[in-house]
Amino acid sequence: MRLQAVRVEAFAKINLGLAVTASRPDGYHDIETLFQSVSLSDTLILAPLEGAPRAALSVSGIPVPDGAENLAWRAVDVALAEFGCPGVSIDLTKRIPVAAGLGGGSADAAAVLRGIDALFELGAARATLLRLAALLGSDVPFMLFGGTALGTGRGESLEALPALRGVWFVLATPRFGVSAGEAYEMARIGLTDPVNFIRVNCLAVREGDIPMLAKGLRNDLEAGVVSACPEVARVKEALLSHGAFAAVMSGSGPTVVGLVKDEPAGQSVASRLSGRGWDIHVVAPIDVGQSVTAVEDKPHG
After folding, report:
1. For domain 162-283, which architecture applies?
2. CATH code of domain 5-159
3. What is the pLDDT of residues 99-122, one digit of tens each?
């Protein structure tokens, strides 16, 4: 019996280090990055949609487009073309800040792929889902399964790492967006240290050595973004001066990630940063990128 609906929790990601190694002929960049899923999520409820249109998207929470310019909508097109299944309606509750370096759009796109697979009981192979995800964006393959991983190439080539333990994060996001394209245009390519800090950070994860990880935090996009958006530097300084023991910009920014030992330490930092006009979230590392569950009754609305 076909499911009435599925609920997908789509978790944000952070980058615990990002190295830009080269420009590519296709207009992208080769990178090495340490991806980590965290406990901030968007919620999507998918239900079958008969007839035309083949997709319907409603949004609550943080405002984002509800049409074809939304990556979740584009994921529907990709999935339906691949699997030939009926259309879907999507109710999206948006909590992950937009254009913030946290992969919110990519998380939603991955959630649509996983949700359609579950909703219509397709049993799609992991390789198939990863191939479709790569069509939608460089971060989408990681968002499918999440956890802790080394990303190379455009970020779509993934090597799973042991689950990260012994650390929490404070995410501080100024209320302006940074486009990934602009961040990469400002990147200072070729200035990466001879010592490969991303590989050192991966070793730190494997050995459970949080001080080593903290020491190796770096993002090659950060200096360029700070030159255009000095507030990012102020966010980082505030995190460090109010209790985080390390901090780094996530992805293309402007979110800055502060490392703290546990949730109480994170809440203490968050309280000290309140009232500055930044979005603050205290989050834990988690082992998954998507959580998919059946919904008993088809949603109304």
Report:
1. 2-Layer Sandwich (3.30)
2. 3.30.230.10
3. 999 999 999 999 999 999 999 999
Alpha-carbon distance of 242 to 177, in angstroms, equals 24
Residue 139 known to be catalytic: yes
Structural contact between residues 35 and 15, judged by C-beta atoms closer than 8 angstroms: yes
Cβ atoms of 168 and 44 closer than 8 Å: no
pTM for this model (two decimals): 0.93
Q: Is 209 noted as a catalytic residue in this protein?
A: no
pLDDT digits (tens, 9 = 90+) for 12-27: 999 999 998 766 666 6
Q: How far apart are CA 84 and CA 24, in angstroms?
A: 34
CATH 3.30.70.890 in the chain, residue ranges: 162-283
Spatial separation of the C-alpha atoms in residues 4 and 8, rounded to whole Å:
14
Which listed residue (42, 91, 117, 139) is catalytic? 139
Q: Which amino acid is at 171?
A: L
If we measure between CA atoms, which residue out of 173, 182, 251 comes closest to residue 16? 251
Q: Are strands 246-249 and 256-260 parallel, antiparallel or unpaired?
A: antiparallel
Say which of 13, 91, 94, 236 is annotated catalytic: 13
Q: Which helix (H) or strand (E) holds 37?
A: strand 29-49
**Which residue bears the tokens 């190379």?**
152
pLDDT tens-digit map of 58-102: 999 999 999 989 999 999 999 999 999 989 999 999 999 999 999
